[in-house]
Amino acid sequence: MSATDLLQGTLDLLILRTLALESMHGWGIAQRIQQVSKDALQIGQGSLYPALHRLEYKGWIQAEWGASENNRKAKYYSLTRTGQKQLQAELEDWGRISTAIALVLK
Amino acid sequence: MLKEWLTRLRFLISPKPHREIDDELQFHIERQVQEYVATGMPQHEARRKAVVAFGGIESARAQTHEQRPSIFLGTLLQDVSYALRQLRKSRGFTVTAVLTLALGIGANAAIFTLVNAILLKNLPVVDPANLIRIGDNSECCVDSGIQDPGDYALFSTDTWQQLQKNAPEFEELAAMQSGLGTVIARRDKTQEAARSVASEFVSGNYFRTFGLQPRIGRLFTDADNVIGAPLVAVMSYNTWQNNYAGDPSVVGSIFWINTKAVIITGIAPKGFFGDRLSSSPPDFYLPIETVPVLTNRTFVHEPEQRWLYIIGRVKPGVAIAPLRAKINELVRQSFAATTTFSSELGKPYLAKVSVTLSPGGAGIQEMQDDYASKLKLLMWISGLVLLIACANIANLLLVRGMNRHEEMSIRTALGAMRTRIVRQLLTESLVLSMISGMAGLIVAYAGTRMLLAMAFPGAQGVPIDARPSGMVLAFAFGVSLLTGILFGVVPAWITSNADPADALRSGSRATTSGASLLQRSLIVLQSALALVLLVGAGMFIQSLNKLRNIDLKLNATNRYIVHFNPQAAGYSPAQVEALYRTIEDRFHAIPGIRKVGISSYTPMEANNMGRGVQIQGQPDLQDGASWLRTSSEYFDSVGTHILMGRVFTARDTSTSPSVAVVNQSFVNRFFKLGENPIGRHFGSPGPQTSGDFEIIGVVEDTAYNSATWKDHHMYFLPLTQRDPKSARKGPIDGDTSLYAEAIVLQTDRPMDNVQSLARQTLAAINPNLSVVKFQTFDEQIADRFTEDRMITRLMTLFSIVALLLATLGLYGVTAYTVTRRTSEIGIRMALGASRGSVVGMIMRGAMLQTAIGLAAIGIPVAWFCVRYIESQLYESKGISLAVLTIATLTLTAAATAAGLIPARRAASTNPSQALRTE
């Protein structure tokens, strides 16, 4: 499944879930999603960065500049308190929807 | 939530530098490069692959930017400053466009200022929404008898008091005089001359109902409105400021009002101009119980006489429908007790009595009813003019767009998004329309003042402010926005539709068509709209001419009308006969004065008295006539000719037999053809009264009240002869119909000092006798045409502007076509085309658009629209062919002129030069 096939709004959920573990820069987020999904999900940069900035604008994540693992200046994103709440809400939604879809498909 | 807003705010005011996003994206690529290098790829290969893997870096950057609202603000500022620079660069275009639009927007804002002030505004009172008026029409003055249909708005003092007692749904129920009048006032212990001032009689709770606070002193209380209470008055703020310079000692001082001492208790609040819009708002408010004392009129305590309007403040939560039913019941109960409705004739009508509850927040909507249809028409007309202006600007923008074609092609080639270009071009037209809107406000201010001066000539205190209010500003802003979008969106779309490849082909050769179909359509639309306006103006001019050419059957040459008020000067009805003799003698003593007529009112003024008429010995025709009292020289002084018998002489006095003069319409209505009316008797319907007056003469139908009142039956009574009906009823002191209100002076030559002569002469007879109003007879007649003249002038003005704009538009497009086709014309001429055929070719193109505009749209639309103004025209049915022909010819002539100039320029093209212009 490629990034364009991702359900609308799913990318936000993926980003929030990824950032729930630790703060991370854009490249790291893309990598993490790719690894965890065993390369099934590849996030296009063309949608990743707009999404990050959208989430920042909504106040769900916040950004600060820090040193990367190889000591380069990188922009790190972390979950805010509202972001955590939003994640919980979206996870519940996702659970409901996927159960519902699973029921239909059975 | 708060945090989100803070972030939003931070994003809005501090746009992140572009660098930041660039850095972030750059880091991503670098990190990917490292990843690839770590897998053993060579550096340059890793970099190439990382960039490819990333994809469109530009679009990612642009889309990331757009996540922030600050980008919108940033681009907007950028676009606005770019637009301003562009507009500054092409001054000619900008000035033309701004002037055109300012005219269009200004005209609309000016009309809207009036619409807002007259139709939309509430009174400046507390909680206008809770005010309810009982009744909804502008019936006026003093009325009695049965009205059919039975929708009442005027009430007797009795009915008001009963409603006040029995309708607790109203917190307050105020009553006010319907027919505003004047009183003569003079401040005590000053040199001030007695002046005629506007007055209104109101109930004690009037100011309380409106929730008003005095400027200083106190307003009325219920105790002021009691028979025998000390005489008090409240002065309006404007009068206090203008005549007494805001002197606080006015409160508590004595004024002689109609020769009675009245104490001023307070000053009404600033901005309160009474309960209705009027060109002469009240200067003094007086309690209604003082009407008999101050004006000697008795209708205040007569249950048969309806003279009050009622406005109340409902308690919160009162439902209107049941309240209306209850008020109707109460009014019927009150009417049932009157002799009118308890008579056999009146009883059946009682069930038909009804009243409507209407919103009272705007007060009595007399002026609103008067002006609504005219203002709506003006809104339409000014809207059309604006539409034509928009078409013109759109055309100008299209031309500009063509010239900027190359610029747009290059920008597209460099990767500008189409939406971005449209947005920028739209910003340009919006900036243009906003500038025009601001300039339009100046036009609006001047226009409103002009409109006010036209609508209320000579009036001082019209409570309508020409300065743009918040509402007007909002309106002008809205209209500017709308026009900006209207004339900007299509040109922007077309212009942005640039093919990048075009930029590469230098010197794009013009197509033969020159102007686009859209440009031509705009011209067609403009000529059509201009024709509609021209026809409208023509119809109004024709109607006004018809009106002015009506034979009023009077003579206004060297005639002057002096209005005066003997009653306000303290004369009792028993004393007026001697006063009238003195007035006649004193004026006759002045050299140059030929005739002196005295009467209740005069031809072509807004006054009327009517009464039922029955010819003695004939059945009651259920019809009436207007009547007035006149002196012996009156008919000569106004120029009414005698047809039969005689008019009054000095021998028709209070003691001689009752006689009357009637007019031709009266004879036609009440007598059979060929019957001799002289010597017959008539009077108010009834066996006793129908023989009251003997007809001694017949005069022709001089126009009273208005030029269009056809078959106006009238009769005239001697100035000092009491009506036998009222003589039977009571003593002379209650007979207020004996008060004359006008003196008509005829001089043997034009004199410019008649006004001061009249003033001096009256003051010499009695210092309290002052001139209420002075006009030449011509001025008085012209006043009756004010509204018709105003609308005709405005229509003419607007249609001239429309014609001018349409001509300019056609000229612009034709000139543009000629420029674009210069080389084509050069080739044609090189190949042997004559100058005549070139002129013909250009003219055919130009005239074709006009012809389509006129024939296909203009004439049918004008034909169709005339019905909507028919009601405002005098004796006009359908479109007038003469008007249509003249309008069409005018427009064709203008179009010819507009086309001929560029056509001649085209014909003078030098072929060899034209071919080299590439």
TrEMBL record, chain A:
Transcription regulator PadR N-terminal domain location: 15-88
Pfam families: PadR
Xref: SUPFAM superfamilies: Winged helix' DNA-binding domain
Taxonomy, superkingdom: Bacteria
Cited InterPro entries: Metal_resp_DNA-bind_regulator, Tscrpt_reg_PadR_acidobac-type, Tscrpt_reg_PadR_N, WH-like_DNA-bd_sf, WH_DNA-bd_sf
Gene3D superfamilies according to UniProt: Winged helix-like DNA-binding domain superfamily/Winged helix DNA-binding domain
NCBIfam families in the record: padR_acidobact (TIGR03433)
Protein's name in the database: PadR family transcriptional regulator
Native organism: Acidicapsa dinghuensis
UniProtKB/TrEMBL annotation, chain B:
Bilayer topology: Multi-pass membrane protein
A Pfam family the protein falls into: FtsX
Compartments, as annotated in UniProt: Cell membrane
All copies of domain MacB-like periplasmic core, residue ranges: 94-329, 528-722
TM region(s), chain numbering: 93-120, 377-399, 430-452, 472-496, 517-541, 794-819, 881-901
InterPro entries xref list: ABC3_permease_C, ADOP, MacB_PCD, Macrolide_Exporter_MacB, Perm_prefix_1
Ranges where the ABC3 transporter permease C-terminal domain occurs: 381-499, 797-911
Keywords: Cell membrane, Membrane, Transmembrane, Transmembrane helix
Family assignment from sequence similarity: Belongs to the ABC-4 integral membrane protein family.
Name assigned to this protein: ADOP family duplicated permease
